[in-house]
Design goal:
Number of strands: 2
Strand content: 15-25%
Distance between the termini: 23 Å
Radius of gyration: 13 Å
Number of helices: 3
Strand order of the largest sheet: 1-2
Structural class: alpha+beta
Oligomer: single chain
Length: 66
Amino acid sequence: AALLERGVGVEAGLWSGTEGHRLFRRSPVAPRVLRVLAEVTDTDPATATGSARLLLAEVGAAHGRP
């Protein structure tokens, strides 16, 4: 919040397999972040794409951003 108050754009990092997406969506600073990094930690090529799709669906278009 201190950086945002000084006009510095910040990036939120969310990892697959965590509750980060829920915490982010409830955060009062979420509407003010510059961008979101969605990090897929699944290393299995057979399931990584599904993990990525799930993470993006969980994050959604929060706060009216695509």
